[in-house]
Amino acid sequence: MTRPRHFLHPFTLLLVASLPGVTTIGAQQLTRADSTLVTRILMAEDRRDTTDAALAEGRAHADSRLRTLAERAVARTRDARFVDRTSFPVLAQAPVWVEPAWRVRFRQLPALRDDCPALRLAAADSAWPVRLRAADLARASCASDTALVATFLRWIDRRPSKLDRRRRGEVSWQGAAHAIVAVVRLAPDEARPRLEVLATDRSWPLRRAAARAAGVLNDTILLRRLATDGDDNVAETAIELLRERTAHADDAIYLSALSRKGAPVVRAAAIALKGSSAPALADAAIRAYHRFAARNNASERDVRVALLEAAGRPAAEDRIQEPPRPLPRDAIRLALGDTITLRVTMAKRSGGGTFDVRLRGDVAPIMAARLAAFAERGYYDGLSWHRVEHDFVIQGGSPGANEYVGHPLALRDELGTVSHRRGTLGMSTRGHDTGDAQWFVNLRDNARLDRDYTVWGEVIAGIDVIDAILEGDVIRSIRPLPAPRRD
Asked: CA neighbours within 13 Å on the CB side: how many for 464?
């Protein structure tokens, strides 16, 4: 059935009906009709519908705020990169965060990767991010540095017994995971027996590290074993490394992986099978595609496209029915200048601590309101920071702790004038309008991200907690803070 042009989702109708006859934002007032028009403008933008009459009404409105919202909605819809960017209203300037002292040492290390004494010193640094970076950079030129090798061996052999928790300033599995890859480069004979132990460890990050180390050693026997690991992230890594080394010789492993449920491992298997002559490939890939398509998860497009291509079919055939997109409860007041702050509480087993995030309703009211709604429902509780690049960003919010598992609803970009400065929060995407509720915190100024990624919030307290986060650290909860009292 065709919906009328001004269709509003029942939840949105209830929201508008609950507004008082006059809405006060700042010193100016909006009538209920004006608030309804704001709702329609935001929904038209979210649908990318420039034909909606609400946009023309908004552009002709007497109130400059509604005119700006309508003009911006039209511009964002017509121009995927939104070159002519507009923000409204302008919030108070965000704090300028000083970087931790250790980051200077962190940045110096790449130029010192063949300076073995410098790496040895870095491997004993007071900050674990520096130590882990030293392990990542160490290579065969330092194989004769027995003290450096001994340091990495200690990280493996003296790893904590409880790898699901760490004290702030310390590590759990992270030290051993980085060290095993370093040791296979520096002292492969010392690494091999330890590699076998880590490959069967109960902690999947250590098994994934074992796969990476096996790749350095070109140990295809171990890679084949880990390619069938029960954890999707381990199997994905092993399959990617195995494909690079044996091409289609291991197609049987990849064909079997197509029947798994996890998007990362199925995607890796489909990519490995592309161009294969296996007679069962086309049918197996299409069956897997239909299984994923039935999930209607917008964030899983990459695996669906990989399956279509493995079957010899064009990516354009990918079609799913996205879930309904009701306007989030707080989108209207954020768009009109109200302030919402989220508190992110880290789990005690990941060092604890909190940091506060102010939502940027002036540039991204719909995205910010959606993320606030997800947080209030507990969506992020117990999820982790699966990507930590200490001189770039931390990223989290995936139910699968990886890039390819996210919220089923695709979040539209809301590109604006706020730059990706240190302490701002951005939405992770894999193409325009593909946000999947995974988000990142900029650890440094990253202006190169401005063109493609939406800034939807900024840290206003607790940057030290963010700087201390390591890969795998767990979010205990994210919740809105009570609004300040208005006297």
From this structure: 5
